[in-house]
Design goal:
Blueprint lengths: L1 E4 L1 H9 L7 H7 L2 E5 H12 L9 H12 L2 E3 L3 H6 L10 H12 L3 E4 L11 E3 L7
Parallel strand pairs: 1-2, 1-4, 2-3, 4-5
Length: about 130
């Protein structure tokens, strides 16, 4: 199975894997684990605004986490961005919508802590939540 981690799940996997619950095993068994460039962008924005502290700059953090978790960085392509147009209006957050579009395009399952994303169907796997601050 190919899995794409949403932004919360990416942070949890790196910092507090015990929050992943059963998804920790799913991650371990995945054929391919991916983190989207969109998530890295979202983290950079949140860290810049002071809403998050990763303990280092986002570039260093994302490279370290990719090594530790054996993650591939998934770039955002024009096809990914255009695919958002065809998603139902389940969720308005542009980062989340892009992650769903990427999961569909990459034949992956999006692991998320946001129950609202389950409205997109089988492409999304809710691992628990809601996200806490």
């Amino acid at each position: 199975m190919r899995v794409l981690l949403d932004t919360h799940v990416l942070v949890w996997a790196a910092a507090t894997p015990e929050r992943l619950g059963a998804a920790e095993e799913l991650l371990a068994d995945a054929d391919l684990r991916m983190a989207s460039a969109a998530s890295i962008w979202e983290l950079a924005i949140k860290q810049r605004l002071g809403k998050l502290s990763l303990g280092s700059d986002v570039r260093t953090w994302s490279r370290r986490v990719a090594r530790e978790l054996v993650l591939d960085h998934l770039p955002v392509t024009a096809d990914h961005a255009a695919a958002v147009e065809h998603l139902p209006d389940v969720h308005r957050d542009p980062f989340d919508r892009l992650l769903v579009a990427q999961a569909v395009a990459e034949d992956a399952v999006l692991l998320t802590a946001d129950a609202r994303l389950t409205g997109y169907g089988d492409v999304v796997r809710f691992i628990g939540g809601p996200p806490t601050a």
